[in-house]
Write the structure tokens for this entry.
Amino acid sequence: MSDDIEIVRGSGNVFRDLGLENPELRQLKALLAGQIVRVLDERQLSVRRAHEMTGIAASDFSRIRQVKLERFTVDRLMAALSRLGQEVEVSVRVHPREIASVPA
């Protein structure tokens, strides 16, 4: 076994690096969910209190905290942030993706 360590630079999207489907969508959902969790934590809101404030099911906030995001659309996550008093600003940039060389 060699003691050499190979350093590999990631693409900036762990979902793409792992070869998962729809990596950009997964990353966007993760970022939005992270902001929801940040707001809940900053305000020390339980999922039940967040439900009372927003009308969004406590079980949905629990799923977001557990990063079980399959059932959520981007617009639903953005709506949750809005109901938590957050303004969501979206910016889109489109450019060719660099294709990393894959070892043979």
Q: What stands out?
A: DSSP finds five helices and no strands in the chain. The longest helix spans residues 23-42. The CA atoms of residues 2 and 8 lie 17 Å apart. The mean pLDDT is 91.
